[in-house]
Design brief:
Layout: H1 22-28, H2 37-46, H3 55-64, H4 66-76, H5 80-86, H6 95-104, H7 108-127, H8 134-146, H9 151-166, E1 175-178, E2 193-197, E3 206-210, E4 213-218, H10 221-234, H11 244-254, H12 265-287
Parallel strand pairs: 1-2
Antiparallel strand pairs: 2-3, 3-4
């Protein structure tokens, strides 16, 4: 089995490749403009903030080096291990999500939350008539009874976890639950995947694995899932065929990101069902007596 995730070609990405910022031009100047990329990367590493740096300094560094980093990832096709060695700050805190926003200009966290607040109800209702969702729905209902104040959050978790099944795919291809005391085994896991210690409704340990490496750990499921999706864009990787519908739905229906790739039939069908549900809800609201 290959230890590399399948990369997009430059023509397949929806990324905008802006011209170099003045800060990056400065980093590349000084007689090194036409030199090898390794020379440029060495200079960038030398200018990287120290371990005692502030969050603002990290943000500034990541913004200033964005253009070089995208060219490095998109065209030199490095492994995730090499990216991690070259840009360790990319794997700290919320930098994968921040990088996704730099690439796409979409706030994934806010947009996904807003979508789930609006659509989790219909999605959960649709799932009640879909084979294979019973255990997940039951677990979601149980945690909402135990924590009624967090109903909106648990509806969001349930909604996200139901999407693969509603789109005729399998949740276990992107989220793997293991025993609470189990060792996290990254071997054989090439494309981005989450490993949850225990049920996603109980766990506070989620591990993002890419190319057989645990690249980051999270305490909250929704943030972990957002980083899982963002990783495909940040590391310029193709969606796997086993999750093509799920990730395309997030891209096109939730984020409304456009490209020339056709929308799969299953995605269109779910989008249409949600649109009809929303229209019916609005109609009922207008029909209510004053």
């Amino acid at each position: 089995m290959s230890s590399r995730g399948k990369r997009k070609s430059a023509m397949m990405t929806a990324e905008v490749m802006p011209g170099p910022s003045s800060a990056v031009e400065a980093a590349m100047s000084g007689g090194e403009g036409d030199g090898p990329s390794s020379t440029k990367k060495s200079k960038l590493l030398k200018d990287e903030p120290s371990t005692s740096t502030t969050e603002e300094e990290i943000k500034k560094f990541m913004n200033n080096t964005f253009d070089i980093r995208r060219n490095f990832i998109n065209f030199e096709d490095p492994t995730v291990a090499i990216i991690r060695e070259t840009y360790p700050y990319l794997f700290k805190e919320r930098q994968i999500l921040s990088e996704f926003e730099r690439i796409t200009e979409f706030d994934l966290d806010q947009t996904l939350q807003q979508y789930c607040v609006k659509n989790s109800g219909p999605i959960i209702e649709f799932a009640k008539h879909c084979p294979g969702t019973g255990a997940l729905l039951k677990a979601g209902d149980k945690i909402k009874m135990e924590q009624p104040d967090l109903k909106q959050y648990w509806d969001m978790v349930t909604c996200i976890c139901l999407l693969p099944t509603l789109l005729r795919e399998n949740l276990v291809d992107c989220i793997i639950e293991v025993a609470e005391d189990a060792q996290v085994d990254a071997k054989g896991k090439i494309v981005p995947v989450l490993v949850s210690r225990g049920s996603v409704f109980k766990s506070d340990e989620f591990f993002l694995i890419i190319e057989e490496e645990v690249v980051q750990e999270y305490e909250e499921f929704t943030i972990a899932f957002e980083n899982l999706f963002a990783a495909y864009w940040v590391f310029n990787m193709e969606y796997p065929q086993t999750l093509h519908n799920t990730y395309t739905f997030i891209q096109k229906a939730i984020l409304k990101m456009k490209d020339n790739i056709p929308i799969p039939t299953q995605c269109k069908q779910l989008m249409n069902r949600l649109q009809r549900s929303d229209a019916q809800k609005k109609q009922r609201s207008r029909s209510k007596p004053e």
